[in-house]
Amino acid sequence: MIRVAILGAGIGAEHLAAYRELPDLFSVNQIVDRDLDRVNALPNSADFAHVAEIDVALSDPEIDLIDICLPPHLHVEITLAALRAGKHVVCEKPLATSMADVDLIIHAAADRDVFPVFQYRWGPSFSALQALIDAGLIGKPQVGAVETHWSRGADYYAVPWRGTWSGERGGAILGHAIHNHDLLTHFMGPVAQVSAMAATRVNAIETEDCAAITFVMENGALCTSNVTLGAAFDQTRIRLVFEDLTATSGTAPYAPGLDTWEFTARDPAKQRMVDELLKDVKAEPAGFIGFFKAIADHLAGRPARPVSLDEGAASIALVTAIYYAARTGERVDLPITSEHPLYAGWQP
Ligand SMILES: NC(=O)c1ccc[n+]([C@@H]2O[C@H](COP(=O)([O-])OP(=O)(O)OC[C@H]3O[C@@H](n4cnc5c(N)ncnc54)[C@H](O)[C@@H]3O)[C@@H](O)[C@H]2O)c1
User: Fold this and answer.
1) Are 260 and 286 in contact (CB under 8 A)?
2) Using alpha carbons only, what angle is made at residue 120 by residues 114 and 124, rounded to the nearest 5 degrees?
3) Distance CA 298, CA 193 (A)
4) What lines the ligand 1 site, CB under 6 Å?
5) Which domains, ranges and CATH numbers included, belong to the chain?
């Protein structure tokens, strides 16, 4: 049983609900928020300790895993403190807001695990796509296109840390499209080069809310991402074109793997093999439940594909490259090394 303290009762409430679906694997013993009214308002709140101070959770020997659902500017400091206290860490996105901080975390994580949150990876359609990949039915990645077309207005930005460089540390590239960029790289491979344009066109905020990005993957695939927080409604659309198969998402914004996808073989004769294989795919639990189950399996030494610290690091390297490309107009090479001008962070 993994004993958990959740820090932050916003999205932390959804983490709590997911842990509760895995009662043999996790026990949430503490929820920490300096706004105790938020903790008191959580469902069945008698089941866990209500705590206002983060240090109480970090110093408790009865806690194995610190789950950080705090605003982004606290992620690195609290991840490092939790690792020093000997805890495993789950950290909401973004893991960090500079590659220098990512390297500090990698250094500090020597014998503990850090699991960056990318729960979109779990859902029946991604179990299906992974099964097609594992069966060798898709071929090489060719091109991919992702649209993160969501709507955010004044109510969303009423939370003081949002929309600011000091609090949120970035805009739609860092806070919203990061999930879909993780999916793109998860299925199409690591990024070698990025070009990008970014703008603030929707809300009166400091950070960007629109972007158009192109990626060259290490395997040569060419991909694009189009982002706005000014769409009429929230939609995510993803199309991944492989040599032998095209995968087309539905339009569900936040859980693309829960939506119905089309998997179409290029050679109609192969479609039967695809359809046969898809009949037998065992879907993993979706969203946060699948994400946490993979962590429990990994920590218990069972076969699992949790989100790794290296994958979280890659997501921050990609954000760094996108901001640099957007500001300079240059095509940016990855990886981002300590020599890169934005290694210490992209805050203007
Ligand atoms: N994975 C996802 O799909 C997803 C969705 C939403 C938010 N997030 C991420 O989750 C994080 C939190 O976002 P949110 O929307 O829940 O924010 P929020 O502002 O609603 O909640 C954060 C909570 O942290 C508490 N807090 C802040 N500083 C504290 C401190 N020093 N000590 C104790 N408590 C403190 C606040 O009182 C607040 O209740 C962000 O990094 C965000 O990017 C991820």
Assistant:
1) no
2) 120
3) 32
4) 8-11, 32-35, 38, 54, 69-72, 74, 92-93, 117, 119, 159, 175
5) 2-119 (3.40.50.720), 122-283 (3.30.360.10)
Query: pLDDT (tens digit, 9 = 90+) per residue, 324-336?
Result: 999 999 999 999 9
Instruction: Give the up-direction half-sphere exposure of residue 28: CA atoms within 13 A in the CB hemisphere.
Output: 29
The pLDDT, as a whole number, for residue 304 is 94
For the CA of 38, the nearest atom of ligand 1 = 39
Q: Which amino acid, residue 294?
A: A
Structure confidence by residue, pLDDT tens digits, 119-150: 999 999 999 999 999 999 999 999 999 999 99
Which residue among 15, 30, 33, 292 has the greatest number of ligand 1 atoms within 8 angstroms of its CB, and so is best to mutate? 33
This prediction's pTM: 0.95
Structure-token pair, residue 319: 């954000």
Give the pLDDT of residue 161. Answer: 87
